[in-house]
Amino acid sequence: MGLLNIISLHFQQVFHHRLRSLVWFFIPLLNNLVLILFWSGALKNTIADPNWTIYTATTYYFLLTIANAMLSSHIEEDVANYDIQQGELVRYLIRPFPYYWIKFIEEIPYRILQGSYGIILLIFFSLFFGTYIRITANPLILFFSFIIAVFAFFITFTIKMNLGLSAFWFKDSRGFFELVTITLIIFSGGVVPLYLLPQAVQIISYILPFSYTAFFPIIAVQGKLQIFQLFQVIAMQLVWLGILIGLNRVLWKKGIKKFTAIGQ
Amino acid sequence: MMKYVRLYRALFRFNIQNLIVYRAHFINSTISTVGWGVFQYVWIELLTIRTKSAFGWSKQELVTLAILYIIIIGIFHFFFSRNFDRFSRIIDKGELDFLLIKPVDSQLIATTHIHNYPNLIRVILGVFFLMIYTRSNNLFFTIQGWIGLVVLAFFGIMLLYSLWLFYCTLLIWFPRLTNVVEFLYTINGMARYPAEMIRELRNFVLFFLLPFSISIATPAKVLVRGAWDGDILFLIGLSGMFFILTRVFWKYALQHYTSASS
Q1: Which of B23, B49, B188 to probe the A interface (max A CBs under 10 A)?
Q2: What's the ipTM?
């Protein structure tokens, strides 16, 4: 019951600033709408590919907007700037909850609210331009897609937590954060779906964890993966999650010894 | 006028000193700025990986537009964007008072106080990309094209400045909307694409993006195609009109500024 109250308080805080969340949602939305516009002109002069038509492109970028809003965590600056460098971590240390899970609870309401904006938009768009949105109707695939989406969120959240924890050692990691963000955008299919990239880049993308945060959840919902491929994706997500959580534990144990509350 | 020249010289000196004192910050900002600069190039290369042209622009023209975006937006960020970054904070905490009581123009001091030196590295990177790309693709531009680029880039930056100031002035009424500037960084990305993209769609909802898209596409078109068409007058007219309008809007908004805790 106590835990529910804590979660509910965080929801109240996020809903109090819902206009800010709406602006945050507009950022990926605008980016992806512009990409749809670009492809509406570019596809007329593109080598024909049955996997990449105006219908698949529109669905892909709409789902990417939802993935960016719902699955993409932005906790790193909060952890690095406020908690570690300004000493806010102290108030978390005296609470009877692991730091990882408190931050997780803080992040969830933002993702749910911004993801809801995305889903509402998708429903509206589907009502007026239904033919442009092509999502699988297979309930089994949708079920596994949901599991992939949940693990995708855990992966981005843990990557960003680990980035934030690097502030135990570095005074200003903003440049490093930005470089990771750029890498994440490219290798998670944030510009174009990974299957449009050259073979070598695709192989690298499938090895790195980033493709499991947006690209695979999206193509799973589009119904482009068979059941055994969905299992492969989940297996890879679990491997990466294991590595990232292991790294998180190491960073936390070593980093907390360096924490001096103020003036990190 | 001379007072403002002296003031701007002093601000330059102040910003250089700031840069020397906070060296680690400069290096960090340079890494991220250069990273985003390279990303703009990678972005358009990825988008055009299987495309020959879009909206009447060939692949080479689209890549040149993206490189010019790196340069022109780098200049804009160098002079202005850091000032807009802090708008929300200085309005919310009442720090704008300290700028308003100074015996200089409030708009000038609020929007040109801080320079962002890492973006000069981004401009240099863009020039380097442009040299390499034009040479490797045997692209040749006329001297009129280069002159047109420089002149129209000035108006493009003036237009972007006016648009940013317009949106940031709204913070006087909504100071907690701290992410408006982040949104502006995103809309700026519109300038990487041909303006024809918005025009062909003829959707009035997206027409608010048109000023952003002509700000860089017009100078780029003059350089790569030598196209001295109606867009030039449109850009010059729009930048002049927006500059005057935002000036009036800023003065009006200040009458509603109620300092801290408002």
Answers
A1: B49
A2: 0.84
